[in-house]
Amino acid sequence: MNEAFLFFLQTLGLGLLTGFVFGYLFKKISKIILFIAAIIIILVVVLGHNEILQIDWLSIKNKGINLFSDYLNVYNERLRIFLQNVPFTIGLIVGGLIGLKKG
Fold first, then answer.
1. Structure pTM?
2. CB of 24 closer than 8 Å to CB of 30
3. How close are the terminal C-alpha atoms of the chain, in Å?
4. Residues 35-45: tens digit of each pLDDT
5. What mean pLDDT do residues 18-37 have?
6. What is the dihedral of CA 17, 18, 23, 26, to 10 degrees?
7. Is 51 left (phi over 0), alpha (psi -120 to 50) or beta?
């Protein structure tokens, strides 16, 4: 067998194995993190409902709105350019996929 082809197959196999392992671990770890985050959110809501923990939801809402408006003010131009290019990018990706499928 040609050395270049053997190298290609070995590299491809290693890439497939590495991708599978990372994908599997990412799926398992993300489920665990999501479960822990859900438990924490439920705990905070239950403690707030039973008035053990005082939560100022209005203050959280106002800080979130201020943070979002500050973000939009700072990145308004970048956001406009990004949003103008989204349709082209989507069209390019979809067209490329259709071309690959039909070809």
1. 0.47
2. no
3. 30
4. 999 999 999 88
5. 88
6. 140
7. left
